[in-house]
Design a protein that fits this description.
20% strand, Rossmann fold, 38% helix, binds magnesium ion, alpha/beta, 263 residues, globular, 2 domains
Length: 263
């Protein structure tokens, strides 16, 4: 497969955000035009992020604000995929969420029963409102033997001043403290997020093209779920890093903007 083939087969562009569409809050190159060209080619855009500290509504406001959310565009987060997973695999169960208030509200709105005292399931998300009290509760519930689910595996979240510890770092914290790792991680690269995306779009296989800057989430997500994968070198991964990696993308571009040549 090369870039021409994967683009010609693609009906939906699954786009990572940070490092792919924007970097440190600034759109990368002429991204508005690139996204417009993708839409004009008859393809749809789904913005796909592992960041579970924010909700779809937060992202909609942000993307609208920077002018890159149009009519048919969709947004799907690892939080959305986790709510869908819980409803399917733990229907009616009480769930403790180590996550932001907004994430909890979105779970409640999706019909997930939340509990702060006697959960049957513990969900670890990217909790930018984390406190020691929440760490203690999470450790307690994990020791009690609740089911253990993490929204996504990313170790760091890119930020202006310095990268900050993301859910993956907290997975390691609880592994050290409690001796448990999640039974299920939902977000990219794992199949639960892929199932959610297929349900959302009604598409599968190479009709879906995942474009992203991170090898261990975005590119593995494409490769391991039968989607096409496009690595962009505009974010985390450098050409040298890619050369040394065992993870292989179907195609590599300097930035997503270069895809317009192949539409
Ligand atoms: Mg990224």
């Amino acid at each position: 497969m090369d870039i021409k083939e994967i683009v010609s087969l693609a009906k939906i562009f699954l786009l990572d955000l940070d490092g792919t569409v924007y970097l440190e809050g600034e759109l990368i190159g002429d991204m508005k035009n690139t996204l417009r060209r993708i839409r004009e080619s008859g393809r749809e855009i789904v913005y796909l992020t592992n960041n579970s500290s924010k909700t779809k509504e937060d992202y909609a406001a942000r993307l609208e604000n920077i002018g890159i959310l149009e009519g048919e565009d969709k947004i799907y987060t690892s939080g959305d995929a986790t709510a869908a997973y819980l409803k399917k695999h733990f229907p009616g169960r009480r769930v403790y969420v180590m996550g932001t208030e907004k994430l909890k509200e979105s779970f409640a709105a999706a019909g997930v029963a939340l509990s702060e005292t006697d959960p049957e399931v513990t969900v670890l998300a990217y909790d930018t409102e984390s406190t020691y009290e929440k760490l203690c509760k999470t450790a307690l519930f994990l020791r009690r033997g609740t089911a253990y689910i993490a929204t996504h595996p990313d170790v760091n979240c890119p930020a202006k001043a310095c990268d900050v510890p993301d859910a993956g770092s907290f997975i390691r914290l609880f592994e050290a403290s409690v001796g448990r790792v999640p039974e299920v991680i939902v977000g990219k690269p794992f199949r639960y997020m892929a199932e959610g995306v297929s349900e959302l779009t009604g598409r599968a296989g190479r009709e879906l093209l995942m474009a992203g800057d991170r090898l261990y989430t975005d590119i593995r997500f494409g490769a391991e779920n039968g989607f096409s994968s496009l690595l962009v070198l505009s974010g985390e991964t450098t050409a040298e890093m890619y050369e040394k990696s065992e993870t292989r993308a179907d195609a590599v571009l300097a930035s997503l903007n270069d895809v317009v040549k192949y539409l």
